[in-house]
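STRUCTURE:
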């Protein structure tokens, strides 16, 4: 059986390995000059391939998922798969799982070795322009060339990181067969914010809890390292909030403390209310608890010069200072675009596919990974979905071929 896989990302490589090992003649068609470009960039080049917590709430779609990625491709199935690749996984913060080398190249090289060992074929710099049903199979067109396959797996990715090759072209291939696309928007990306202080605070980090507000109501909260940039904020807890901002219109804002590890610090509210305990100058007091760049922001917002003794501040000045220390607020104007996003939210509607991700409109045509309307939280969940969906499709094709 000839299998054509369009896209040489994680989904395409994994499906290719499993199908080639089952005796299928598999060809991966990759539009870029090499496969796995996006994989090499994930996890800051370390490949966050999965997570210790596989509860179902970490994946999102407009429709119910055809199967639970964490149950179907369980921790045991994951262990067996990576053991077969010769890769040990290690766990870091928030349950993130990485290859023990902490290098994405380790995963890519192992997948390619396994694929080639099973006589799989790669055709790079080959962009598939269209797919048509033909004589019990499919005809793939690439420029003046054409290729026949009994079955086709579309694993082109979504629109995130288009420099890696995932620029949304796969949507058109599926639409030609009647499939519908849901609204797409960037996910796992930095938030764009407005503040006259952002340029000054560029590069500053805060370790704490950040809350996202929509129309004045708190809708999500995450904890971790928050990084301020010239145009907004990023960091692991911020990336998790991007999806909520992209889901619908509203007035968004974020709030987080200026103080690192606020839960471990003294009760500054009581301290500041006891005037006699703080005869030091405001700047000296702030220098002891804040990074230098934040001191300027507090003094500016409170209308202080810095030399004022803390025990002589008015009630209004103390209240304003406390609110800033505990809850610095930034209006959110949007999410950084697909060039910076790690995943696409939305994609080809799941209603057009079977539980094994086979097209209901063109039997023998499958879709895997990010091209579908499934996206996961930050922390390895999108690669886990890529693994699970590829495994599901390969198992179905092998089973039906017997």
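SEQUENCE:
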């Amino acid at each position: 059986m000839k299998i054509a896989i369009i896209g040489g990302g994680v989904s395409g490589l994994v499906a290719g390995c499993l199908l080639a090992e089952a005796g299928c003649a598999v060809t991966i068609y990759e539009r870029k000059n090499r496969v796995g470009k996006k994989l090499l960039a994930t996890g800051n080049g370390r490949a966050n391939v999965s997570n210790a917590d596989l509860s179902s709430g970490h994946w999102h779609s407009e429709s119910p998922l055809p199967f639970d990625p964490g149950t179907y491709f369980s921790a045991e199935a994951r262990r067996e798969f990576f053991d077969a690749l010769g890769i040990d996984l290690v766990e870091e913060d928030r349950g993130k799982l990485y290859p023990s080398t902490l290098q994405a190249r380790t995963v890519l090289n192992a997948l390619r070795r396994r694929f080639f060992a099973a006589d799989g074929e790669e055709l790079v710099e080959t962009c598939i322009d269209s797919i048509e049903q033909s004589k019990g199979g499919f005809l793939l067109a690439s420029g003046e060339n054409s290729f026949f396959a009994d079955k086709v797996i579309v694993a082109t990715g979504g629109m995130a990181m288009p420099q890696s090759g995932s620029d949304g072209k796969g949507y058109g291939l599926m639409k030609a067969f009647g499939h519908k696309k849901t609204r797409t928007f960037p996910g796992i990306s930095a938030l764009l914010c407005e503040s006259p202080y952002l340029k000054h605070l560029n590069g500053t980090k805060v370790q704490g809890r950040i809350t996202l507000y929509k129309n004045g109501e708190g809708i999500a909260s995450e904890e971790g390292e928050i990084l301020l940039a010239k145009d907004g904020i990023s960091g692991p807890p911020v990336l998790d909030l991007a999806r909520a901002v992209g889901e619908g219109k509203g007035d968004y804002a974020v709030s987080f403390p200026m103080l690192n590890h606020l839960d471990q610090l003294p009760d500054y509210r009581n301290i500041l209310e006891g005037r006699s305990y703080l005869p030091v100058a405001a700047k000296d007091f702030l220098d002891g608890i804040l990074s230098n760049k934040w001191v300027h922001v507090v003094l500016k917002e409170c209308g202080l010069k810095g030399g004022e003794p803390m025990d002589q501040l008015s009630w209004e000045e103390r209240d304003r200072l406390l609110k800033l220390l505990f809850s610095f607020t930034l209006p959110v104007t949007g999410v950084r675009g697909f060039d910076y996003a790690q995943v696409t939210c939305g994609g080809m509607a799941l209603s057009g596919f079977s539980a094994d991700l086979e097209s209901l409109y063109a039997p023998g045509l499958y879709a895997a990974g990010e091209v579908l309307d499934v996206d996961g939280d930050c922390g390895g969940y999108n690669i886990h979905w890529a693994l699970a969906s590829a495994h599901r499709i390969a198992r179905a094709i092998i089973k039906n071929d017997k």
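REMARK: The mean pLDDT is 93.
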